[in-house]
Amino acid sequence: MIVWRIDVWAWFADPATWQGDDGVWHRLAEHSLLTIAAMLIAAAIGLPLSLWLGHLGKGGVLAINVTNVGRAIPVIALLSLLSLGFVGSDTLGPFGRAGLATLLTLTAFALPPIVTNTYTAMRGVDPDLVEAARGMGMSGRQVLVGVELPAALPVIVSGIRLAVVQVWATATVAALVAGPGMGRIIVHGYDSQDGAEVIGASIIVAAIALLLDAGMSLVQRAVARPS
After folding, report:
1. Chain-wide mean pLDDT for the chain?
2. What domains can you pick out in the chain, each with its CATH number?
3. What are phi and psi of 159, to 5 degrees?
4. Staple partner for 178: which of 89, 97, 102, 160, CB 3.0–4.6 Å?
5. What is d(CA 1, CA 89) in angstroms, rounded to the nearest whole number?
6. Could you tell me which residues are beta bridge partners of residue 97?
7. pLDDT tens digits, 12-67
8. In sequence order, which ranges of 86-225 are alpha helices (DSSP H)?
9. Nearest to 54 by CA among 143, 118, 109, 135
């Protein structure tokens, strides 16, 4: 155990660990880009859809079931199928080899908590509050934006929080199709039988996941405060 601790510490302390195209800083930037892009795509698809369906009170169950397909299929299996299928394994700019397949996989993984939480939050808004707003002459759009959305926001943010942490942690699978990110360092450690590299890179991914969760928790608390 002591030897492992020394090796991991030496890996962290080695300047070569952090420098170059295969260094931690570069791989972290790639990992962050994958996570941010997948979250933006998932939010752009999932939030408007589930907000509108939640406002109407129709079609939500179907939307949740459809997006849950991304949760039902194992991430590795979905990534493999997409990278070998019509999407292919071509390089997509900074997203690397099988970049489109990786983005689609991570987006599919991010959609379920966003859609489920948003729709559930919208349907959970106090009906009396909605009726009072309509009685004041507010239009459907005004009710959605001015009444339902603020009331549902804490639960919506909790779904985004879950999706962010899941996508960050799962983005390591990009390395399985020679994609970018911290997974490349972990895979290299396994290939070279360097346990310190595997553990060190895994610690970094886990630590940032905890930081992201803590940061999103603060956002969730902030939006839950009464104005």
Report:
1. 88
2. 21-224 (1.10.3720.10)
3. -70, -40
4. 97
5. 40
6. 91
7. 999 999 999 999 999 999 999 999 999 999 999 999 999 988 888 777 777 877 77
8. 99-123, 127-135, 140-143, 149-170, 183-191, 195-224
9. 118
